[in-house]
Amino acid sequence: MTANEARLCGLLLREHFGEVVEKVGTHLLRNGQQSLRAIAHETGMPLDQVKKSLCVLVQQGACVFSSGRKGPGSPAEFLANGDRILRILRYPRYIYTAKTLYGDTGELIIEELLQRGHLTMSETVKTVADRLTQNMEEGQSMDYSEVSSAFSKLVETHFLQRCPPVGVEKNAASPDNPPAPVTTTSSSAETYPDCYQVPHVTLLGRGKRPLCTDDGEEQRNAKKAKMDTQAHGDEGIYWQVNFERFHLHFRDQTIISAVANKLDQTSSEIVRTMLRMSEVTTAPTAACTKPLSANEIFRSLPSNYNILRQILDQYLTLLVDDPMEFVGKAGESGGGMFVVNLHRALSNLARATLESVVQERFGSRSARIFRLLLRTRHLEQKQVEDFAMIPAKEAKDMLYTLLSENLVQLQEVPKTPDYAPSRTFYLYTVNQLPTARMLLQNCYKTVGNLIERRLFETKESKRLLEKSQRIEAILASLQASGAEPEQLTEVEEMITAPEKQQLDSLRLHVNKLDTAENQVDDTIFLLESYINTTCIPT
How many domains does the chain have? Predict the structure, then answer.
């Protein structure tokens, strides 16, 4: 893990779980696998705090533990999962996708599982039903069966999966020697065939509203204890969010959106149909979808798209001939079967992203040179000047600027073994994969800077934010008790006009920073997808 990734992981842990968890998590990221007592000794933290921090990290899947390197009986050792921590950055996108596909119920199910790490189906259904009931009118409540149905749909489409069973080694029990699992926290249909099997859960009833009494906390605890004693048939079966499935959905949406921007809406609908037909049958690492005939695509198009078969053939020909190569013909013979070129589409989108970055930072002429080198691979300086139609002095300056930023590489091809400059060709080239990796690290650094800025802004206005929250809580309480408008106005006036202006300015800045984070994360996802698919072992 690079320094930029480790820094971003630390900021995400601090923002979501506090400084203590951040300290333990970053220590594990930098030092690798360690035992409990080693972590406590090297961080200088109390053993109890380290234990609680590790519990949080394990619960969230950000840390795994296994038997020590000295063999059975040795203290368990913990290892941080940096990739899993970085997924925290994408939580809003997962939740929004679930809301788009499965409504408010799907949104709350994903939100609850992301917040808690992993839960049983019965616990999730009860919690989500209670939360939905709170937002309903008095006298209405959400039925458990409706939430269970939404949960089953998420499992059916593989957005949720079972946590793999954990094999436990029976070691000597001690504070720094918990049971050591022999499997990882990730699961798939190949390693765990039952990961998408929904158990039969006996869960009847409806969501309940919270009790608003002075001893409400005690009643909630008593209610929870009573719920825990009831058997629902899914004890010991825990569920987690399947990030890989969400990423496949994001990849498909990225390709569909790119087709719509490059061509038109009808073309994107054809590609959407092809991806939907191949959703279950295509492996996550496949270079392209399964072959589909024009007849199959025609029959599967949405009914509201009244496209004639001849028009569909013309669109398919247009997609195959497009330079971005989103769609291709299956097989070398190029018969009547069509596929979506997943890896090639990601490669072309990554290339377009690199070109866009160069154009934004260095101007259109530098982007022209960069694009030329991407397509022709190796060129001498004189050839770059001629092909790009840029004056020699300007082309030389632009090439040296791109070279200093590591966006362009210089390759020496000697005529003789002595590498004499007069007898050596100097060729400029662009290596797309290393350049994409460099840009990805810059994106990690950018997101880290944005988070730090947001934390600084909120820390500077902490007192004002706390005052605003207290006043909002008082207003909500007064409105619930039916207070008069004069009382509400009097409470609202506790915040002065300058403070309101400061709050509005703070909210505007924080919203801009949040938007920027999401936009950079879109670029991170595209570059990660391209790098991962390019580096798949053959």
Answer: 5
Per-residue tokens: 169: 């080694």
pLDDT at 183: 38
**Residues of the domain holding 203:** 87-162+186-212+235-244
CATH code, domain carrying 34: 1.10.10.10
Token pair of 306, please? 């009244």
Backbone angles phi, psi at 380, to 5 degrees: -80, 165
Q: For residues 147 and 198, state if they share a domain.
A: yes
Q: What is the dihedral of CA 227, 231, 237, 239, to 10 degrees?
A: -40
Among 283, 306, 340, residue at a domain's last position: 340
Which of 340, 375, 393 represents a domain boundary (last residue)?
340
Query: From CA 65, how far away is CA 74, in angstroms rounded?
Result: 12
Q: Given pLDDT bands bounded at 50, 70 and 90, which one contains residue 296?
A: confident
Q: Whole-prediction pTM value?
A: 0.84
Query: Is 346 domain-assigned?
Result: no
Secondary structure element (H or E) that encloses residue 173, with its range:
none
- Residue 340's identity, in one-letter code, is V
| Secondary structure (DSSP) of 329-395 | ESTTTT-SEEEEBHHHHHHHHHHHHHHHHHHHHH-HHHHHHHHHHHHH--B-HHHHHHHHT--HHHH
Angle (nearest 5°) at CA 1 between 239 and 519? 70
β-bridge mates for residue 130, sequence order = none
Tell which residue, 140, 144, 8, 31, has the closest CA to residue 84: 8
Same domain, 65 and 118: no
Residue 15 belongs to some domain of the structure:
yes
- The answer to whether the CB of 290 falls within 8 A of the CB of 239 is no
Half-sphere exposure of 36 (CA within 13 A, CB side): 23
The token pair at 58 is: 């394990």
451 and 419, same domain (yes or no): no
CA distance 139 to 144: 16
Considering the domain architecture, whether residues 58 and 113 belong to the same structural domain is answered as no
220 CB neighbour count, 10 Å cutoff: 12
32-41, 194-203, 308-317, 445-454: least confident range:
194-203
Residue 32 lies in a domain: yes
- Asked if residue 223 has pLDDT above 80, the reply is no
- Do residues 198 and 121 lie in contact, with contact meaning Cβ atoms separated by under 8 Å? yes
239 and 142 co-located in one domain: yes
Structure tokens at 444: 């990690």
Lowest mean pLDDT among 155-164, 254-263, 307-316, 325-334: 325-334
202 found inside a domain: yes
For 487-504, how does the pLDDT look when each residue is reduced to its tens digit (9 = 90+)? Answer: 778 777 787 888 888 888
The Cα–Cα gap between 322 and 245 comes to 28
- What's the start-to-end Cα distance of the chain, in Å? 24
